[in-house]
Amino acid sequence: MSAAPLLEAEGLSLRFGAIPALDRVSLAVWPGEVVAIVGESGSGKTTLLRVLSGLARPQAGRVLYRDPAGEAREVHGMGEAALRRLHRSDWGFVHQNPRDGLRMGVSAGGNVGERLMAAGARHYGAIRAQAAAWLRRVEIDPARMDDPPAKFSGGMQQRLQIARTLVTHPRLVFMDEPTGGLDVSVQARLLDLIRALVADLGLAVLLVTHDIAAARLLAHRLLVMRHGRVVEEGLTDRVLDDPQHPYTQLLVSSVLAA
Amino acid sequence: MSAAPGYNFAYLDENTKRMIRRALLKAVAIPGHQVPFGSREMPLPYGWGTGGIQVTASVIGPDDTLKVIDQGADDTTNAVSIRRFFARVAGVATTERTAEATIIQTRHRIPETPLREGQILVYQVPMPEPLFRLEPRVAETRRMHALADYGLMQVKLYEDIARHGHIAISYNYPVMVNGRYLMAPSPIPAFDNPKMHRMPALQLFGAGREKRLYAVPPYTEVRSLDFEDHPFRPPRAEAACALCGSRESYLDEVVTDDRGGRMFLCSDTDWCRQRREAAG
Fold first, then answer.
1. Strand partners, A173
2. Strands in chain A per DSSP E
């Protein structure tokens, strides 16, 4: 890990009417690090992810992103064109519902190739070869490359979304409940896959989840959110094995042991 | 010939013509960019060339010579009635010869005779938005144009090759204008796309129902989208014209009986006639 954080947020606040969705949240993500944000529904996790990725604007605070040249840039001050460029090259976003991240009418190969083509790839054979390689990597049979994702199972759709996101080798990936809505055995395989890919590619990941087990498996560091505030943060094992805040203790103790 | 009394010159009132000319100037200044304009009701139905006829009415002058073609032909209903319309309301000279015309209004074709400087080609456009089958939200297509975010169009071409083995777009084939804007060339055959590239004549596009104008100034780069390993190839029927024997022109297929009989003819009637006259 290098000395400078990849993404740095200071004092983010956002209220929806009387409800504080974010209350002075600060965090940093270093290159190659997986940070999980856990908390119950409505604690502001998804809002935080949207603000950090520039999809929503905070009422106070700022988010800095260090680009490959090493220059820190303010995410909400860079303009729509630059933000879009960032989203389709340096960043990736994995949605909870694969339908939000995929084009359901376009074949699996086209879905993976879209980011390459948006980045300027214009060689059909090369795009196809790269798409096939990525499908293989996320354990989808390349023979199904020309099928639309609508014909895939939920787990396959989620793996396809991950392939589509990672094909341009982003440095930072936002994941919003990537295992939500999948049954447990499929979840386990997906988590395994994400863990292997993250380690292989040296990705920095900001993971939002309410699944403590998923967080323990993937994350290096953990932030616990409640009512829009970060109540506890630290190394994953430390937070989960020795929770200090009463809410974290409640959260950890409410996980069912199989 | 003089104009019929009771109409302003070229049918539209002067303020409307000025508004359209302003939009056209903007369109010429930003090649390929769609400029909104206040499209008027015209005495013909939408889809018959209301956009093209308003553009022609705004740029035509008493000294102009007008040619109107529909699918390449000068003698089809739409072409005849628009030509007669301008002869009546503007009193301008009309012609069927491409070389003699100063303004050519067209639907579905570019004349085979190369156009020269000083000529204006006016296209009738049913749908100006090249992304409309791919992205249903108009606001989003605008944003895509603004950010030159055209990966989606390339995805459509990719899908065509994956499904059919080649790019299966035979008309309204998308082009990049001046390396910046993605543009629908109106439903001309892909065969005509190369003619738009660095054309010496001014090309104006009018979409009446969608209320958009756009333009390609003379000598502007117009490139058909493709892949490096699947380059753009203008499609053409493998035949010669039954009348003039041309193997270079764009051909219409005409069914002659119910036993499979067919013949191919030049779709550009003026060009076909010229060739037959030259051959004697």
1. A92, A205
2. 7-16, 19-29, 34-38, 60-66, 72-74, 91-94, 172-176, 204-209, 221-226, 229-235
The pLDDT tens digits for A168-180 are 999 999 999 988 8
- B235 contact partners, CB below 8 Å, separation of at least 6: B170, B189, B190, B191
Out of A109, A119, A124, closest to residue B227 by CB: A124
Q: Are strands B35-36 and B212-216 parallel, antiparallel or unpaired?
A: antiparallel
DSSP 3-state of B68: strand
Could you tell me the CATH superfamily of domain B14-133+157-224? Bacterial phosphonate metabolism protein PhnH (3.40.50.11310)
Q: What is the structure's pLDDT at A70?
A: 85
Mark yes or no for CB contact B227/A122 under 8 Å: yes
Active site residues of B: 32, 241, 244, 266, 272
Task: Provide, as residue numbers in chain B, all residues whose Cβ is less than 8 Å from the Cβ of A103.
Answer: 155
Beta strands in B84-229 (DSSP E): 93-94, 103-107, 120-124, 175-177, 181-183, 202-207, 212-216, 222-224
List the A7-16 sheet strands across, edge first.
Answer: A19-29, A7-16, A60-66, A72-74
Retrieve residue B238's tokens. Answer: 């493998």
Q: For the sheet with A204-209, list strands across it.
A: A91-94, A172-176, A204-209, A34-38, A221-226, A229-235
pLDDT, average across residues B53-60: 97
Contact at CB, B155 and A103, closer than 8 angstroms: yes
pLDDT band at A188 (very low <50, low <70, confident <90, very high): confident
Do A136 and A197 form a contact (C-beta atoms < 8 A)? no
- Do residues B212 and B128 make contact, with C-beta atoms less than 8 angstroms apart? yes
Across the beta sheet with B103-107, what order do the strands follow?
A: B35-36, B212-216, B202-207, B120-124, B103-107, B65-70, B93-94
- Domain extent listing, chain B: 14-133+157-224, 236-280
pLDDT tens, position by position, B236-271:
999 999 999 999 999 999 999 999 999 999 999 999
pTM over 0.80: yes
Cα torsion B237, B238, B242, B245: sign: positive
Residues 6+ apart with CB under 8 A from B104: B66, B67, B68, B69, B98, B111, B115, B119, B120, B121, B122
Mean pLDDT, rounded, for A133-160: 93
Average pLDDT, chain A: 90
Question: Rounded to whole angstroms, what are the CA distances from A164 to A103, A115, A138, A190?
Answer: 10, 7, 10, 15
- Interface residues of A toward B, Cβ cutoff 8 Å, are 80-81, 84, 88, 103, 106-107, 109-110, 113-115, 117-119, 122-125, 127-128, 145-146
Q: Which amino acid does the sequence have at B86?
A: F
> Which one of B137, B145, B155, B166 makes the best mutation probe of the A interface by having the most chain A beta carbons within 10 Å?
B155
